[in-house]
Amino acid sequence: MSENTLKRLNKYISDTGLCSRREADKLIEQNRVTINDKAPELGTKVGPNDKVKVDGKVIGAVAADKSDRVYIVYNKPIGITCTTERHVKGNIIDAIAHKSRIFPVGRLDKPSEGLIILTSDGDIVNKILRAENAHDKEYEVTVNQPISERFVKRMSRGVPILGTVTKPCVVKPTGKNKFTIILTQGLNRQIRRMCEFLGYEVTRLKRTRIMHLELSGLRPGQWRNLTEKELTTLQNAVRHSSKTA
Question: Which domains does the chain show, CATH number per domain?
């Protein structure tokens, strides 16, 4: 069998939209995956005639042209949690109620709102999430007190949080207590932590853009499919991105 027809098991599982590659590796380690009814090892490769099961259920290979993949943008309301765990009240999967199995690309914390991508294409998730790919994300932020010139300069230059210093970013005041910020990082609760370090508290946080994708008039709780042009641009943008193994 040609090496070109084989695919690493974690990628095969991820491409089906079941989970990320990292999560697929955990499933394999937990002996929840079989190939032709036999337990595989990490790094095992799958051929076109192999039958892969997760928790005893067969999962089919993704179409070669990914025509069966789902790509949507969602205006996440405040209070929705970006998790695929259905037992969590207010989880994003139940909120959207899409007929396909999808999962979010990255996350917005529960008190935040705005644009998030969801897809069944695990490969594109891995590419987008890699911080070094420098895919920019824009946010509108409101804080609890007037912002100063010093605040804007410090935020733009970088702030020490989580054992590192944030990368330089673009910060523009838009009101007495408001500003926009464009990040190329995705540290946990990054904007809130940056503001806290400088003595400010975020009272509203809304993501308005990821790369070329915008909310486009979506009201909180609404979602739409990516247009053909948006999807093509997205795929081109991450075509040469590094991705997790």
Answer: 3-58 (3.10.290.10), 71-130+214-237 (3.30.70.580), 136-210 (3.30.70.1560)
